[in-house]
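Suppose you are handed a protein chain with no further information: no name, no annotation, nothing but its sequence. What can you learn? This example shows the usual starting point.
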Amino acid sequence: MREVISTPNAPAAIGPYSQAIRANGFLFISGQIPVNPANQQLVEGGVAAQTEQVLHNLEAILKEAGSSLDKVVRTGVFLKDMGEFSAMNDVYERFFPQNAPARSTVEVARLPKDVRVEIDAIALVE
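A reasonable first move is to predict its three-dimensional structure. Written in structure tokens, the prediction is:
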């Protein structure tokens, strides 16, 4: 079974994709960028502020699907500049203080809307 998950508490999809898909006990969350869902505007500030918004967006989608951050099994982090890894990681660690999910982090040439960070996730759902 495949179910589309969507919430107004995270940025609306800006292309032909879903915020998330629930399938066979897993939730596959599309890459989230630092857009405030209240006004659909990019969050100003550096990578720390942007990472915080991205993780709040992921959290909202998880909640809508009946999951939570502690059920995330894997994330993919895409950074515009690997020199900002430490600042991103400090914020990330606040959201995943124990038993953090598996993760890959890569530097990319460009992200949507020229943001500093994008994160996708896979989580368990009931």
